[in-house]
TrEMBL record, chain A:
It comes from Geodermatophilus nigrescens. The chain crosses the membrane at residues 6-27, 57-77, 89-109, 140-157, 188-206, 262-282. Pfam families: BPD_transp_2. GO terms for molecular function: transmembrane transporter activity. This is Amino acid/amide ABC transporter membrane protein 1, HAAT family. Keywords: Amino-acid transport, Cell membrane, Membrane, Transmembrane, Transmembrane helix, Transport.
UniProtKB/TrEMBL annotation, chain B:
The lineage of its organism: Bacteria, Bacillati, Actinomycetota, Actinomycetes, Geodermatophilales. Keywords: ATP-binding, Nucleotide-binding, Transport. Residues 20-268 form the ABC transporter domain. This is Amino acid/amide ABC transporter ATP-binding protein 1, HAAT family. It comes from the Bacteria. One of its GO terms (cellular component) is plasma membrane. CDD domains: ABC_Mj1267_LivG_branched. InterPro entries: AAA+_ATPase, ABC_AA/LPS_Transport, ABC_transporter-like_ATP-bd, ABC_transporter-like_CS, BCA_ABC_TP_C, P-loop_NTPase. Residues 271-290 are annotated as: Disordered. GO terms for molecular function: ATP binding; ATP hydrolysis activity.
TrEMBL record, chain C:
The chain crosses the membrane at residues 29-48, 54-73, 80-98, 118-139, 146-166, 208-227, 259-279, 285-303, 310-327, 347-370. Residues 381-394 have a biased composition (Low complexity). This is Amino acid/amide ABC transporter membrane protein 2, HAAT family. It is found in: Cell membrane. InterPro entries: ABC_transp_permease, LivM-like. The lineage of its organism: Bacteria, Bacillati, Actinomycetota, Actinomycetes, Geodermatophilales. It comes from Geodermatophilus nigrescens. Residues 377-412 are annotated as: Disordered.
Length: 296, 290, 412
């Protein structure tokens, strides 16, 4: 039972991080109809910037600058490429983000090399016990920060003019444009917000129990993709649920590895994808995604 | 070139064209009722127009008839076939063809290739026989190519068969839409605003073509159209929709003098040409400095 | 109206076949001649060039098969898939397992193999890849193209996991070596029988070159035929509008499932060829990177174009190998371990940038570029019609938000 609770808590904390990434993925899709395969390498860019800047700047300024760098990179991708392709087929947009991903990821992996870069989190690698259930301080803080960010996001999404504009353009781009909503600005802002969320997620993703920044962080970040799809590509609430579901699945599959040994070592890393495929089999638009109106 | 009898002599309905019965059809999107208990019957071999102000539910009705939308309640029957419980490709299989209003052709493919798609349900060549170019696949293509040419020539597209559709003029593309629907060899033809955006001359030609189609093939035609002149001169019977409800059903003369119809049209403002409206709309969207 | 329309009886009349398009340009005669010359050149090449080029050629042939298959799915049908590496793996592993021998592997688990003739391994490899595609096709058929793109990511990770853990079959983390190909006793290895043609020794590289040529040509012709026929037209329409395809009588879900099946069989064959070309299989050869490179091939070559896929495959496969071969003469590029940028990495920068530039400026890829070049002067004022599948939707009455020119002009 303790093991179960421990895995559950760790799963939720991991899931909170995934939810941040997935949320960015979803708002980019809502704002610019782009499935951004650049998201994994953007996250790695955030992690790398924070790790590299920590020494000269100190931890907090490094986080701040790292977040800014990531957000700016996302902004550039939107302005220089996506914005020029407004209205292009969804598949071309996805492919162009893959092009960006190839370049960014290749460069980051070359910079990181075979090393593991350390991020000097002030909370270090310590663990705490809550009623007999152990969790790393890093993950505990991650949960808190993610919680705050997610609440802030949903409030902003509901009440800020950007949130309203974005929901309007996701609903009916042309009508929104007629009412004076500038889709370019809405889309750029969505990419910036997604960049910020990815960088914050990166900060915690490379902390305990993960040893630091390596190319593997990219693979981990990719697991937020099934989270977004699982919830429904156009549902922010779905991203949240999907993130938690994926986090818990991964933690459970890794934790009960002995019992699941017939599935092979390291099954935890692919369990999210298995769950995603099963869900899509039953619900092709994800749990909360908008269903297709037409029947073919 | 046609060896068959001139179309105008054949003014009788084929005996394999059953009536279309639209029976209490409703369609709801969430809380919005796009169609509310709509019923009417299309007599075999007639031209039946469906009209109504913008947003009256005409497009929704066409989407139900062609199987793209599922009716929330009610039934559409075409002889023995219950269209409302079939998927679109099955509906095409029983000889119901639709020409889209907003041109849903493949721009990169030639006119001939687009028309051949209409023969899809009449042909059989599969992945294997096509990939290997087995004789039966090539023979099939040749035989049906002949009929394609006939239909293309009928709609003045004979010299454009090998032109990619994307480079054709708007009027030509509209005619390719109709030609493609004809290639299904339909017993029921659904025409969604076939003359929208056309000039007077093109409109006249299209109206002539529709008459000819009905006369030569003896099939039923359901027509959604904004051009009232065309509707009144062409249709045998007219159904009027407003806010998803049927408000009138009768001959053009009956409908024209129906007070509720007049109210619906006056109440919703003057009827505008949809192409014009859309063009103005686009200008606003791009030109707006907001 | 110019003519009258008869009842459908006309459909069964045979008579003169539709007149072929009139000869419009000298290209009509030039093209077959050029193709013939190219084929002849490819046939005699092993007599003249070094082993490196022949081996590169076989790797390219394998990639061509895979890229054509992916292009049928992504380019022609508009279904984004990142699962291609998975199906390559199914083909490669099946071949290795079926035609490989059982045997020890040091202290680790004993490898198993069926030891059947390699041609059986190849055929069954293709069939099993198809079966894997068939098993996934209920998902592939129901998902919108873009959902499929992300969902198919899952298959790649699951595939790598299986490769890593199912050691007796796959060789696990370290992989296993691939049995030589042979056909009815004729080995595609270095000897058995020894072979000289015009005094040139025909060893593994030369023999595989011809195998690659035959398979790539077959894959090419099959896809070309397919696209020009009934299923091909249905698939292209399905890409442009699923609703239109369905209303015209195409069973959209069945066709999506079928093209997924065909595409995965192409991938299976490509996987077998890859295994033969490298000589061993290992999990890292079938990761996400490979899927992405295949996507790069078809985008660079031109989505939906069979010839484009072949061009793209040649470019993407050969470039890193050529970079490596000429590392010492190329600026900036270096051999591994020295300063500068390693060949593989330099190539990847190039692919990434090329993909972005193609989508931005030449959506038709290399094939579109060639088409435009050929068509210049024939259709003035219009670009290649294949450049934009959505061009037909570009009409004032259309309120579809994916209407490029209308909105693009305001944001530029």
């Amino acid at each position: 039972m303790t093991q179960f609770l421990s895995l559950l808590l760790n799963g939720i904390s991991l899931g909170a991080i995934y939810a941040l990434i997935a949320l960015g993925f979803v708002i980019i899709f809502k704002a610019s109809e782009v499935v951004s395969f650049t998201h994994g390498s953007l996250l790695l860019l955030g992690a790398y910037s924070i790790a590299r800047l920590s020494e000269p700047l100190g931890f907090l300024p490094a986080v701040l600058v790292g977040v800014l760098i990531t957000a700016f990179a996302a902004f550039l991708v939107e302005r220089l490429i996506i914005n020029r392709l407004r209205g292009a087929p969804v598949i071309s947009l996805a492919i162009v983000t893959i092009g960006v991903d190839i370049i960014l990821l290749t460069e980051l992996i070359r910079q990181i090399g075979p090393d593991i870069l350390n991020v000097p989190h002030p909370w270090g690698g310590d663990s705490v016990r809550i009623g007999g259930v152990g969790i790393s301080e890093n993950r505990l803080i991650a949960m808190g920060v993610a919680g705050i960010l997610i609440v802030a996001f949903f409030v902003a999404f509901k009440y800020s003019s950007w949130g309203v504009a974005m929901r309007a353009s996701a609903e009916d781009g042309e009508a929104a444009a007629l009412m004076g909503i500038r889709q370019g600005r809405v889309s750029a802002l969505a990419w910036i917000v997604a960049g910020v969320l990815a960088a914050v997620a990166a900060l915690f993703l490379v902390g305990a129990p993960t040893p630091g920044v390596s190319a593997a962080a990219y693979t981990v970040a990719l697991r937020a993709f099934p989270a977004a799809i699982l919830g429904g590509l156009d549902s922010t609430g779905g991203a949240l649920v999907g993130g938690l579901l994926i986090g818990i699945t991964e933690a459970m599959a890794a934790g009960y590895q002995e019992q699941l040994s017939f599935l092979g070592r390291g099954f935890g890393e692919v369990a999210p994808y298995v769950v995603m495929i099963i869900v899509l089999l039953v619900r092709p638009s994800g749990l909360f995604g908008t269903k297709e109106l037409t029947r073919v | 070139m046609s060896a068959a009898a001139p179309g105008s002599t054949r003014d009788t309905t084929r005996d394999d064209v059953p009536p279309v019965e639209v029976d209490g059809v409703s369609v709801a999107f969430g809380a919005i009722k796009a169609l509310n208990d709509v019923s009417f019957t299309v007599a075999p071999g007639s031209i039946h127009a469906v009209i109504g102000p913008n947003g009256a539910g005409k497009s929704t009705l066409f989407n139900v008839l062609s199987g793209v939308y599922r009716a929330t309640s009610g039934e559409v029957r075409f002889g023995d076939a219950v269209l409302s419980s079939m998927r679109p490709f099955q509906i095409a299989g029983v000889g119901v063809a639709r020409a889209f209003q907003n041109i849903a052709l493949s721009g990169a493919q030639t006119v001939a290739e687009n028309l051949m798609l209409g023969r899809h349900h009449l042909t059989k060549a599969g992945f294997l026989s096509s990939g290997l170019r087995l004789p039966r696949a090539t023979r099939e293509g040749r035989v049906h190519g002949e009929r394609i040419r006939e239909i293309a020539e009928f709609l003045d597209l004979g010299d454009k068969l090998h032109t990619p559709v994307g480079v054709l003029s708007y009027g030509d593309q509209k005619r390719v839409e109709v030609a493609r629907a004809l290639c299904i060899e339909p017993r029921l033809l659904l025409l969604d605003e076939p003359v929208a955006g056309m000039n007077a001359q093109e409109t006249e030609r299209m109206a002539g073509a529709i008459r000819e189609i009905r006369a030569a093939l003896g099939i039923s035609v359901i027509l959604v159209e904004h051009d009232m002149g065309m509707v009144m001169s062409l249709a045998d019977r007219v159904t009027v929709l407003d806010f998803g409800r049927r408000i009138a059903d009768g001959t053009p003369a009956q409908v024209q003098s129906d007070p509720e119809v007049i109210r619906a049209y006056l109440g919703s403002g003057t009827e505008t040409d949809p192409a014009e409206a859309a063009a103005a709309h686009t200008t606003d969207a791009t030109g707006s400095p907001a | 109206m110019s003519d009258t329309l008869s009842a459908p009886a006309g459909a069964t009349r045979t008579g003169a076949a539709a007149p072929a398009r009139a000869a419009r340009s000298p290209m009509r005669f030039l093209k077959p001649l050029l193709l013939l010359a190219l084929l002849a050149l490819l046939l005699v090449l092993p007599l003249y060039v070094e082993e490196f080029w022949l081996r590169t050629g076989f790797a390219v042939a394998g990639a061509i098969v895979g890229a054509i298959g992916l292009n049928l799915l992504v380019g022609t049908t508009g279904q984004l898939s990142l699962a291609h590496a998975f199906f390559l793996a199914v083909g490669a592993v099946s071949y290795t397992f079926i035609s490989g021998e059982s045997g020890g592997l040091g202290t680790r688990a004993v490898l198993r193999g069926l030891g059947l003739p390699p041609i059986v391994g190849m055929v069954v490899g293709v069939l099993l890849a198809g079966l894997a595609g068939l098993l996934f096709s209920p998902i592939a058929a129901r998902l919108r193209g873009i959902y499929l793109g992300v969902a198919s990511l899952g298959l790649v990770f699951i595939g790598v996991h299986v490769l890593n853990t199912w050691t007796p079959v796959t060789g696990g983390f370290n992989g296993r070596s691939v049995p030589e190909f042979s056909l009815f006793g004729f080995s595609f290895g270095n000897d058995d029988p020894q072979l000289f043609v015009l005094g040139v020794p025909f060893r593994e590289a030369e023999r595989l070159w011809y195998l690659g040529l035959v398979l790539a040509l077959a894959a090419y012709v099959f896809a070309r035929n397919l696209l020009r026929s009934r299923p091909g037209r249905a698939l292209q329409t399905l890409r442009d509008s699923e609703v239109a395809a369905s209303v015209m009588g195409v069973n959209v879900q069945a066709y999506k499932a079928r093209v997924f099946l065909v595409s995965s069989m192409y991938a299976g064959l490509s996987g077998v060829m890859y295994a033969l070309s490298i000589g061993s299989i290992a999990p890292e050869s079938f990761g996400l990177t490979v899927s992405i490179l295949y996507l790069a091939m078809i985008v660079l070559g031109g989505l939906g174009s069979v010839a484009g896929a072949a061009l793209g495959a040649a470019f993407v496969t050969a470039l890193p190998l050529v970079f490596q071969q000429f590392a010492d003469v190329l600026p900036l590029v270096s051999s591994p371990g020295e300063g500068g940028i390693a060949a593989g990495i330099a190539a990847r920068y190039l692919f990434g940038a090329a993909v972005i530039l193609v989508v931005l400026f030449e959506p038709g890829g290399l094939a579109g570029f060639a088409n435009r070049f050929r068509r210049r002067g024939r259709a003035p004022g219009r670009g290649s019609p294949s450049a934009s599948p959505a061009s037909a939707a570009d009409r004032p009455t259309d309120t579809d938000p994916s209407d490029p020119p209308a909105q693009g002009s305001s944001t530029r």
